[in-house]
Design brief:
single chain; alpha+beta; Deoxyribonuclease I, Chain A; 2 domains; five-stranded mixed beta sheet
Length: about 375
């Protein structure tokens, strides 16, 4: 049984008025929001699920999984081409995807999860995390046109039938109504039981908050693990996604600035070489020790030190996004610090963790993806 493919909400006429609120407290005191809140909550708690994979692939004892933050689906054509043609990505059995738009002007109002599933012949479950009140952040604000459904979320795609599909709301790491990118909602884990020929397993697409502290990311992970422990039946579990293990406390600009200063004192090359690729060793250790304490294996499902995010001081789009919550003078400081590493640094943000799952090989971070020569 799956939710029909319909979008029956009509929030579009009210987005601009709701976006005038400068905080969640102000939003919650708004008469308009109080009137719309039951419908908004209903939409954000919903999961769009379609079984498009017919017939199911031939029986196989192994499972090929891919976790990918596709950054809204801004380069959707290239994402689909890579998933169809790249030797390490093609023919994946399960996709654990983060940051998918549905009805956002910046991605031509596409239903990104469904377009990927249709192109690959896969089943999908899409859970909206946010009702976006603006077009986005940075360069996205300059996008032509208006949002339609104005949703943004995470998804699980599978070549095999999916059941007991649902989402789990996670506590926010910051007030999502403060700043330029105003949103109603919170991150959500997407959970689905996969009817694999070798037996049932549970897939979890998990995207932890970026603008949060290390402690908050730990609390979000703990909430997911608590939820999974209470699900029946207890079957093998694979969790994957962008856990935003930056080693930084990015819940406020001040904390980010102090964090950068600390890392300069520690030695930029040392931090970039020893801490950013290995957040589980120190800065994010509490999260990873909790994962292991609950019986999950992450060490054998990931290649140690293999980074998944690459930042360059010359990246205009990334700098514009950062500029909305980090003071401009900080960029001089960041550029000065990263001059010691050639103006760039890499981090390990994306992870797999599994319970009752035997990895055939550690996960491989696929970098420098290209489609249509770009």
């Amino acid at each position: 049984m799956f939710v029909p493919l319909t979008f029956d909400h009509t929030f579009r006429p009210f987005l601009a008025e709701l976006a005038r609120c400068e905080s969640t407290r102000e939003l919650e005191s708004s008469r308009l929001y109080q009137k719309l809140r039951p419908d908004i909550d209903r939409v954000l708690a919903r999961v769009w699920h379609e079984e498009l994979a017919v017939p199911a692939p031939a029986a196989n004892d192994s499972m090929h999984a891919v976790a990918w933050n596709i950054e809204r689906g801004m380069r959707l054509r290239g994402v689909i081409q890579c998933l169809q043609e790249h030797p390490l990505l093609a023919n994946a059995d399960i996709l654990l995807l983060s940051e998918l738009d549905c009805g956002m002007a910046r991605t031509q109002n596409r239903f990104v999860a469904r377009e990927i599933a249709s192109a690959l012949g896969m089943n999908y479950a899409f859970a909206p995390c946010y009702l976006a009140l603006t077009k986005g952040a940075g360069l996205e604000k300059q996008t032509c046109g208006d949002n339609r459904e104005s949703l943004h979320g995470n998804a699980v795609l599978s070549r095999f039938p999916m059941g007991r599909v649902h989402s789990l709301a996670l506590p926010n790491g910051k007030d999502k109504m403060k700043g330029g990118e105003k949103r109603i909602g919170s991150q959500r884990a997407v959970i689905a039981d996969i009817e694999h020929p070798a037996g049932m397993c549970r897939a979890v697409s998990l995207h932890l908050d970026a603008h949060s502290s290390q402690h908050h990311r730990y609390l979000q992970m703990r909430r997911v693990l608590d939820h999974l422990e209470n699900l029946q039946p207890q079957i093998p579990v694979l969790i994957g996604g962008d856990w935003n293990t930056t080693t930084h406390n990015a819940s406020r600009a001040l904390y980010s600035i102090l964090g950068y200063c600390r890392r300069v004192l520690m030695g930029v090359r040392h931090v970039v070489g020893s801490h950013y690729p290995h957040p589980d060793r120190w800065f994010e250790r509490r999260l990873f020790r909790e994962v292991e304490r609950r019986g999950y294996n992450y060490r054998d499902l990931n290649t140690a030190g293999e980074c998944t995010l690459h930042y360059d001081v010359r990246d205009i789009a990334a700098n514009l996004n950062m500029g909305e919550w980090v003071p401009q003078w900080c960029f001089w400081f960041i550029n000065w610090a990263l001059a010691r590493t050639g103006g760039s640094c890499s981090m390990k943000l994306d992870w797999f963790a599994g319970k009752q799952i035997k990895p055939l090989a550690p996960a491989i971070a696929v970098s420098a993806l290209m489609a249509d020569g770009k």
